[in-house]
Amino acid sequence: xxxxxxxxxxxxxxxxxxxxxxxxxxxxxxxxxxxxxxxxxxxxxxxxxxxxxxxxxxxxxxxxxxxxxxxxxxxxxxxxxxxxxxxxxxxxxxxxxxxxxxxxxxxxxxxxxxxxxxxxxxxxxxxxxxxxxxxxxxxxxxxxxxxxxxxxxxxxxxxxxxxxxxxxxxxxxxxxxxxxxxxxxxxxxxxxxxxxxxxxxxxxxxxxxxxxxxxxxxxxxxxxxxxxxxxxxxxxxxxxxxxxxxxxxxxxxxxxxxxxxxxxxxxxxxxxxxxxxxxxxxxxxxxxxxxxxxxxxxxxxxxxxxxxxxxxxxxxxxxxxxxxxxxxxxxxxxxxxxxxxxxxxxxxxxxxxxxxxxxxxxxxxxxxxxxxxxxxxxxxxxxxxxxxxxxxxxxxxxxxxxxxxxxxxxxxxxxxxxxxxxxxxxxxx
Length: 429
Ligand code: SF4
Fold this sequence. Notes:
Elements (H helix, E strand, L loop, with lengths): L1 E2 L4 E2 L15 H26 L5 H13 L8 H30 L5 E4 L7 E5 L3 H11 L5 E4 L10 H4 L4 E4 L7 H7 L3 E4 L16 E4 L8 E3 L5 H9 L10 E4 L3 H5 L2 H9 L5 E7 L8 H9 L4 E6 L13 E2 L2 E2 L1 E5 L4 H14 L9 E6 L3 H12 L6 E3 L8 H11 L2 E2 L3 H10 L1
The site of iron/sulfur cluster has 15 residues, from α12.
């Protein structure tokens, strides 16, 4: 972006009007944060719109906030801070809209055990976040003998009554997005990418079996239109059948309506000292080193604590056996990243039951960030004044030192250190 005041690339080291032209490091940082948050909101609003839901306030905010990032519109740091928190508020509203759109179309998710094995026969693997794509695919493949497997953020689909009723929704395959190249190559069926995070296949691997739809696109992969899955189905039938491969069962489907069904029991167990603390370990996964922190953290959580999880970071530990506390599972998969809305509803309901604030609950959020939706969710949590969140594995590069210091001071935002040190600090409180 070119700045017409200092006649340099905005935010570049040559920018001579630091603090005046509005493109000093901190304004730039807040505008970048806002833009990433808006991208996150756009993703959720897009999914909701596909299901027929939209909200005038969300649309109006997108326009206002984007306008605010235009050259030389506002140089006011506080205004930018306010707007960034407003972005969190609007994202919360958008996640709520998407939750309602999902549940009114597919029903309230229920806890469900999902196979991770593959059955012999033709198969299609569907990745991304778009449940409507999955629903249409299930309808069009019914009775064809093709099994449908979910990948990564599609796992929570198994909990929705209108999706799980399809017998050929056979199971979940693979882990988080960064394993795609290896795992998609090993999956011998056809593959459908509905949203991010899709990777470009390495040469001579699965490109001829990869299909995209809607917002996605991969050069030379077949792009499907209007949810007509015929070419994908034909491809799946033409490929050699999948082998029978063993796997274990994993749980998903703990929507807030399901967790709140256990509320009285959870409250009793907390009061009796049998549940000491709740951890929300969630967020996006990534390929850079340091993310094994989250697995080690989950493994180190004491046996009298419960872990809530969401988004694709959970694939690092969701196949481990965490057991239960008198019937309450110790690992509760709330769902996709947008189901952060559900986790927030659970926290608010527990705060209501204990007559305290969310910050006074024995609850700590340990988040991994990677892409734009994670930024929008973090902003929603800050808008709700949730304090003491741990984020990692590194501070977001677009957050300047000063902005991070403000967040640390105002929201006690913390960077992760080691699982042992952080757990000690949290549980000693
Ligand atoms: S949770 Fe984040 S990183 Fe993971 S698939 Fe979804 S958008 Fe991508």
